Amino acid sequence: MTEVVFEIEGVKKVITFLNRKAPYGTIYALEVLESVLITAAFEQHANIVFVDDGVYQIKKGQDTAALEMKNFLPTYGIIEMEKEDADEDEDMDMNWRIIVEKESMEARGLTADDFKIDVEVLSSAELAEVLETSDAVIGG
Amino acid sequence: MKFGILINEGPFTHQASDSAYQFVVAALAKGHEVPRVFFYYDGVYNANKLSAPQADDRNVVKRWSDLAAEKGVDLVVCIAAGLRRGIVEDNLMEGFRISGLGQLTEAAMGSERLVMFGD
Question: Inter-chain contact A11–B36, Cβ cutoff 8 Å?
Fold first, then answer.
C-alpha cells in the first residue's frame, strides 16, 4: 500500500461539481453533495453546477417520506451559506458559484424561483466556458 | 504530466474501472505520473477482495492491487461511500486504503489533470 502526500500548500484551484442526475433514484446527487461539503474545508474556488435532471436536486418542496429516503434538500442550504460566508469575508480567497443551466431548467418547465437556493442561470454556451476554465471537474 | 484519477462505478456492470485501468497503464508507460486513484460512489466495490470472477475473465480488483504493488499507485477508497456499501477493512483488497473525501480534493489540487471515469 502506498500513501501519497500531495504538495497542496498555497494551491488554489477551480473545482467544478457537475450535478447531472435527479436527486433520488440514484445516489449520485447525495454523494456529490458530500464531496462539495468536504471541499469547503480546503478553501478552493468551486462551481456547483446543476444540469439535465440535476436541476431537480434543488427544487423547492420535496417530500421523500414515501421513498423512505432522507430528504437532503436542506443540506444545499449549507452550500449557499458557505458561498455567502466566502463572499462576505474579504480575507478569504474563495469564490463559489451556484449555477443552473438555462436550457435544462426551461426544458423542465422550471424557473429560478422554483429553487431552494439562489442560483446563477447560465446558457449552455456560458456553462461551457465555466467548464473550460475549471481545473478539475467532479461529477455524478 | 501528473494525473489524478476518479472512478465512479463498480467493476463489471460498467466499463469505467476497465477504462481507468487501461488509461493509467498507458499513462505510466508514457512516463506520466499517476500518484492517486480515488474510488467513489459504487467505485468503492473495486476494492472488494471477495470479488471472484471466472478464471477466463479479467480480475478487476486484483489488477488494481497488482498495479499498486508494481507501480506504487495510491488507491484510496472513500470511507463514507465504502461504509454504506459494506466496503471496510475486513474485505479490503491488498494495495487499497480507506480514507476520507478530502483525499479526492487533494488529488484535484495536487494533479495537473483529474480524469473521471463514470457512467
Answer: no
Q: Which among B41, B74, B116 has CB closest to A31?
A: B41
In DSSP notation, B55-102 reads TTS--HHHHHHHHHHHH--EEEEEHHHHHHHT--GGGBPTTEEEE-TH
Q: Tell me whether residue A23 is exposed, middle or buried, using C-beta atoms within 10 angstroms of its C-beta: 0 to 12, 13 to 18, 19 or more.
A: buried
What's the whole-number mean pLDDT along residues A79-91?
A: 95
pLDDT band at B82 (very low <50, low <70, confident <90, very high): very high
Is residue A83 over pLDDT 90? Answer: yes
Q: Cα separations (Å) of A10 from A5, A17, A18? A: 15, 21, 25
Distance from C-alpha of A43 to C-alpha of A37, rounded to nearest angstrom: 11
Q: Using a CB-CB distance cutoff of 8 angstroms, which residues of chain B are in contact with residue A96?
A: none
Annotated domain spans of chain A: 24-135
Would you call B31 an interface residue with chain A, using a CB distance cutoff of 8 Å?
no
CB contact under 8 A, B36 and A15: no
- Closest CB from B6, B40, B74 relative to A4: B74
Fold of A24-135: Hypothetical Protein Ychn; Chain: A, (3.40.1260)
**Number of inter-chain CB pairs under 8 A, A vs B:** 80
- For the question of whether the overall pTM of this predicted structure is more than 0.80, the answer is yes
**Distance of alpha carbon A1 from alpha carbon A4, whole angstroms:** 10
Q: pLDDT tier at A93 (50, 70, 90 boundaries)?
A: very high
